[in-house]
Amino acid sequence: MFLEVLRQVTRSAPPAPPRRMAKVLNIASGKGGTGKSIVASNLAVLRAQAGERVCLVDFDAGMANAHLLLGLVPRYDLGHVLDGQVSAPFALVDGPAGIKLLSGGVGRAALQNPTPRELDRLFGALAALESQFDLVIVDHGAGMGIATVAHVAAARSLLLVTTHEVTSLSDAYALYKHAMSVAPDLRTGVVMNRAPDESSARAAFDRFEGVARRHVGKVPEWVGWVPSDEAVLKSVQARGPLVLREPHAPAALRLQSVARWEAIDLAPVARGFYETARRALR
Ligand SMILES: Nc1ncnc2c1ncn2[C@@H]1O[C@H](COP(=O)(O)OP(=O)(O)OP(=O)(O)O)[C@@H](O)[C@H]1O
Ligand SMILES: [Mg+2]
Predict the structure, then answer these.
(1) Does residue 35 have its Cβ closer than 6 Å to ligand 1?
(2) 40 CA distance to ligand 1 centroid (A)?
(3) Which of 36, 38, 144, 148 to mutate to test the pocket of ligand 1 (most atoms within 8 A of CB)?
């Protein structure tokens, strides 16, 4: 009898509304110092200004610096979340334009080389962010460490930041190739940062594209270019995002177009980003 009632209730109950999950944008590079954190922090602000609830996660864990670019002094970071001292939402700090930052922490050895088990724990904790934000932007460390590989395996989009220099391009290509082997359907976009002008940026992208077509059988998308701009250096010194300090500076205008990359708006995988990343670790 009870079972029959239960069956009827289940049958007639309206389907549960789908839980809204954040979109997750990963920002990575092959070589270090190409401008990932500049792009990530400014994109976070631009998307927040456009009305989204944005969380920036500094996954350059152990060598974090996004908080410096945003002029913040976080009390907690990913290390505290990993240790279980605080929850991920509690570790967030308020940033400019309403963004929230989860800092990566500085000088934390455990975070620089996490074990799969530690990452699993961290991803389990970060899943709490997915229902609170529209967009999570993950600023990675350079290269394809285990954390970046696990993120890439769960991602729908990956933004590669490179400069037009041959060393940076070659490392970006290596990362692209690796990412494609982990996640063949990943939408990968390229931003040419610190370029002298658009034609050098385009020429560098064309070379990248040619090599990728020949050796990977796939090509990344052109997302845009950002000029080498004195205003960026000034914003770093002033510890405030360029797009707020000097929204009309040449680099700020180009960053606005990067923030409109359509692959950022792809819905996350059905199971949710962090649950998928956890499965990728197994
Ligand atoms: N478009 C630009 N114009 C001028 N300077 C720039 C530009 N982009 C980045 N820079 C400079 O390069 C420095 C490094 O940038 P950023 O910290 O974003 O690199 P990163 O890729 O995150 O480095 P890491 O690999 O160490 O995390 C900045 O502090 C800034 O001085
Ligand atoms: Mg960085």
Answers:
(1) yes
(2) 11
(3) 38
Q: Report yes or no: 11 and 40 within 8 Å, Cβ to Cβ.
A: no
pLDDT at 9 > cutoff 60: no
Is 34 near ligand 1, meaning CB less than 6 Å away?
A: yes
pLDDT per position as a tens digit, 237-274: 999 999 999 999 999 999 999 999 999 999 988 899 99
Q: Is the CB of 232 under 6 A from ligand 1?
A: yes
* pLDDT of 105: 83
Is the C-beta atom of 107 inside 6 A of ligand 1? no
Q: Return the CATH superfamily for domain 20-281.
A: P-loop containing nucleotide triphosphate hydrolases (3.40.50.300)
Per the listing, tokens 């040619």 go with: 210
Helix (H) or strand (E) holding 162: strand 157-162
Q: What is the pLDDT of residues 122-132, one digit of tens each?
A: 999 999 999 99
**In the chain, what are the helix, strand and coil shares in percent, each to the nearest 5?**
50, 20, 35
Residue 96 CB less than 6 A away from ligand 1: no
**For residue 194, which atom of ligand 1 is closest to its CA?**
1
Cα–Cα distance between 203 and 216 in angstroms, integer? 19
Q: Which residues contact 239 (CB under 8 A, 6 or more apart)?
A: 68, 69, 70, 71
Rg value, the chain, Cα: 20
Atom of ligand 1 nearest to the CA of 141: 27
Question: Domain spans of the chain?
Answer: 20-281
In the block, tokens 């250096």 appear at: 233
- Please tell me the distance between residue 127's alpha carbon and the centre of ligand 2 in angstroms: 23
Q: CB neighbours of 30 closer than 8 A, spacing ≥ 6?
A: 142, 143, 160, 162, 168, 170, 171, 172, 173, 174, 175
